[in-house]
């Protein structure tokens, strides 16, 4: 199984690992095929700039830490952007919609605590 880490999981993993569920923590620690979307780094940067997210690491440092942990940074491909257009409007957050589309395009489960994402036809882990 391949896993796409939601932005909230990346933040918890780096700054508050105790916030992860037992299953999410197990996936982050033990699974070999972990991915983080470049969209999550973008979302973190936006929230840091707005003062809505306080994490001591810069976006480049977060990217470096993901790479150090063997978490592959997933680029945004046009096919995922196209797929966003066909998703049902369950979730209005554009970052989450893109992550869902990316996971669907690449056959991944999403590791997330977001309660709306499991309403999409995608495997979620929490």
Could you explain how this protein is built, in words?
The structure is a single chain. This protein is α/β, with parallel strands linked by helices and 126 residues long. It has six helices and five strands. The protein has helices spanning 7-15, 22-30, 38-50, 59-68, 78-84, 94-106; strands spanning 3-5, 34-37, 71-74, 109-111, 124-125. Strands 3-2-1-4-5 form a five-stranded parallel sheet, with helices on both faces. It is globular. The relative contact order is 0.22.
**What percent of the residues sit in helical stretches (DSSP H or I)?**
40-55%
Report low-confidence residues grouped into runs of 5 or more. Answer: none
Hey, roughly how much beta strand do the residues contain?
5-15%
What count of structural domains? 1
Instruction: Determine the CATH topology.
Output: Rossmann fold
Strand tally: 5
The main sheet orders its strands as: 3-2-1-4-5
Set down the secondary structure blueprint:
Blueprint: E1 3-5, H1 7-15, H2 22-30, E2 34-37, H3 38-50, H4 59-68, E3 71-74, H5 78-84, H6 94-106, E4 109-111, E5 124-125
Parallel strand pairs: 1-2, 1-4, 2-3, 4-5
Core attributes:
126 residues, alpha/beta
Quick structural overview:
By secondary structure, the chain is an alpha/beta fold. The chain contains six helices and five strands, in the order βααβααβααββ.
């Amino acid at each position: 199984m391949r896993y796409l880490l939601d932005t909230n999981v990346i933040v918890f993993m780096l700054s508050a690992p105790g916030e992860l569920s037992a299953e999410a923590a197990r996936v982050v620690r033990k699974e070999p095929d972990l991915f983080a979307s470049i969209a999550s780094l973008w979302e973190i940067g936006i929230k840091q700039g707005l003062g809505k997210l306080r994490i001591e690491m810069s976006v480049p440092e977060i990217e470096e830490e993901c790479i150090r942990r063997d978490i592959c940074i997933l680029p945004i491909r046009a096919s995922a952007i196209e797929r966003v257009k066909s998703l049902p409007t369950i979730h209005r957050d554009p970052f989450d919609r893109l992550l869902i589309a990316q996971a669907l395009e690449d056959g991944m489960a999403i590791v997330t605590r977001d309660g709306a994402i499991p309403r999409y036809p995608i495997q979620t882990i929490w």
